[in-house]
Amino acid sequence: MRQRLLIIGAGFAGMYAALSAARLRDAEGVPSDELEIALVAPEPRLVIRPRLYEPNPETLTAPLDEVFKAIDVVYLQGNVETIDTSVRTAEILGADGARSTITYDRLVVATGSRLFRPDIPGLSKHGFSVDQYDQAVALDRHLHRLADRPASATRNTVVVAGGGFTGIEVATEMPERLRAILGMDAAIRVVIVERNGTVAPEMGSDPRPIIEAALRDLGIETRLGVGVAALDESGVTLSDGEHIESATVIWAAGMRAAPLTAQIPAELDRLGRLPVDRELRVHGVPGVFATGDAAKAACDDIGHDALMSCQHATRMGAFAGNNAAAELLGVSTSPYHQEAYVTCLDLGAAGAVFTRGWDCMVEMAGETAKKTKQEINTIWIYPPKANREIALASADPERVTDL
After folding, report:
1. How many CB atoms are closer than 10 A to CB 351?
2. What local confidence, expressed as pLDDT, does residue 402 receive?
3. Which of 179, 217, 373, 402 is the most exposed place for a label (fewest CB within 10 A)?
């Protein structure tokens, strides 16, 4: 009797779950008509989400349809609207508006995350972001339309709400990006607003002097220890009462798991993630695995949990796909582990900073780190070639993102 492994999501975790499940099926000599691997997503493409702070975001996708065909993964276009874990079904809303129900024997929830937008007056109407593909494209088009406005401080000012990893990459890219649109002589002003007392609070003290020096070199201002109180057509008002005139306010603070995780009968963490065991099974929900930004997973035995990043999502996806397929094939599962942790923060024209370890100790900075960042962004995080042997070989859980 045919069994079905269903994967929801075609981000980094979903893509690697499909690759890894297909790899194990191939290694066990099981034909696809005995174990069907199906993936549901709105489009058969990988959005290169870590690069959406860059110009020309419409170019930052990679097709997956030929990869899926090469490894015998069934692609289903649409969005999963509902999941019923009691009868192991998912309802799909197709691109044509038609609804269908699909059964599964094992489910991998790889639905990713979304930017958290608090109920701040004017944020939904006047705020931009680079979280999702369409949002990054909307920001890029807005920036180009600024050239049609008369020169003014308001036109030339960008405020970035959030001084974490994404906020810094957005902010440090902005001076060069805006001058390419408005002219090299344009008086560009970029301001980072961060509620914490420092920028990049999650990265610790070692890389901070490099980051702060880069912000100074690029002329980027900071407002620390304050938050955003309101947005309007003229700009943004901060929690201390300061009003900054700006035509472009970019929200880059806080992430939450995509809301579909709430349909799985498990106790979510504060970020909306599903709690999983070391094999990435959702606690107390038979037949369901979670991975990537949808899962709260331990990376090691000393207290580190996976972060909402493609670095963790790719490896987690490979383990989740492998283990879900392993259960159906009756072979041993493999516990997820990811002891290595690195960051590579883009600092725009000021270079980059590369750290290693959970304490974020600096290993490279400046142009050397920038070359590594460019290699990560243009090679490492892209899908494998649509060649069966190459694609399957790329998904060994023990080797994915082995840094």
Report:
1. 22
2. 60
3. 402
Radius of gyration of the chain (CA): 22
Residue 388, helix vs strand vs coil: helix
b/e map 230-267, b = 16+ CB within 10 Å: ebeeebbbbeeeeebebbbbbbbbebbbbebbeebebe
Helix, coil or strand: residue 233: coil
Phi, then psi, of 77 in degrees rounded to 5: -85, 130
Strands across the sheet containing 157-161: 127-128, 248-251, 157-161, 189-194, 221-224
Contact assessment for residue 271 and residue 294, using Cβ atoms and an 8 Å cutoff:
no
Q: Let me know: does 63 contact 81? Beta carbons within 8 Å.
A: no
Nearest alpha carbon to residue 319 among 21, 2, 7, 119: 21
Q: Which residues contact 148 (CB under 8 A, 6 or more apart)?
A: none
Beta strands in 184-227 (DSSP E): 189-194, 221-224
Q: Tokens representing 154?
A: 């308001």
pTM of the model: 0.96
Superfamily of domain 123-251: FAD/NAD(P)-binding domain (3.50.50.60)
Give tens-digit pLDDT for 219-251: 999 999 999 999 999 999 999 999 999 999 999
Separation of alpha carbons 219 and 211, rounded Å: 12
Which pairing describes strands 352-356 and 361-365: parallel, antiparallel, or unpaired? antiparallel
Alpha-carbon gap, residue 371 to 116, rounded angstroms: 31
Distance of alpha carbon 115 from the chain centroid: 10
* Residue range 103-128, pLDDT digits in tens: 999 999 999 999 999 999 999 999 99
- SS3 per residue for 289-323: EECHHHEECECCCCCCECCCCHHHHHHHHHHHHHH
Top-level CATH class of 3-115+255-340? Answer: alpha beta
Torsion 235-237-238-243 (CA) sign: positive
Q: Where in the chain is the domain with CATH 3.50.50.60?
A: 3-115+255-340, 123-251
Number of H helices, E strands in the chain: 10, 24
